[in-house]
Specification:
Elements lengths: L6 E5 L4 H12 L3 E6 L2 H11 L2 E4 L5 H14 L3 E6 L10 E2 L2 E2 L2 H28 L11 E6 L3 H4 L5 H21 L4 E8 L12 H9 L10 H13 L7 E4 L9
Parallel strand pairs: 1-2, 1-4, 2-3, 4-7, 7-8, 8-9
Antiparallel strand pairs: 5-6
Helix pairs in contact: 1-2, 1-8, 3-4, 4-6
Length: 255
Amino acid sequence: MNIKGQTAIITGGGSGMGAATARAFALAGAKVVLWDMNLAAAEEVAGETGGFAFQCDVTNEESIRAALTQTLEHAGTPRVLVNCAGILIGKRIVGKDGPADLDHFMKVINVNLAGTYNTLRLVAAEMAKADPVNDDDGERGVIINAASIAAFEGQIGQVAYSASKGGIVGMTLPAARDLSKVGVRVMAIAPGAVHTPMIGTISQELQDSIAAGIPFPSRMARPEEFAKLALHIVDNAYLNGTVIRLDGAARLAAK
């Protein structure tokens, strides 16, 4: 799909990979719409990109429907959805105070996994109503979900996060198969460590250890590199139903 002139929704668009994706898409000619809990941050990025910003809680259906209604009114039918909204909270299953709080696990699952599915299903329904963007393939839309290499090699303390991202990996192919009838592609990107505000929630010692273990380039990924890959996925009509690792050949150690 040629993204020029198309409407693209980016969740978590106020910072990190979401903000970088919004900037890259805008430069390519897309109409970007940022959904974020932090409306002020999203509005700042929208100001840079000439886009729109709407407050949205991806775990709440009413909030998504409200943001979607505003998107349709101001920017038109979405043709691209990039799900970047997510949280990272580390906790061991059994710590000094006993078993981990189940609420912690459920919060991560609700935001990262259920939130991704929540936006995917509602936005895909709007894509399905639209005419195809081209006559050759009948393509109506593209959905890209942010997974993580923690889905494959989760570290100590990442049980909830790894489970949430593993769920995103697991639903990629069946979601692509489900939506093939309406001409919507579904892909996932599994980044390694990326220089985003989320990475700042872990210790500097762990950040340094992760960077040192990346074969080449021996550094964390830049948000712009995620954005470039997302842009290519939109452009390449034969990418569908799979997960692409973006990790510099890294494989996470236990800790």
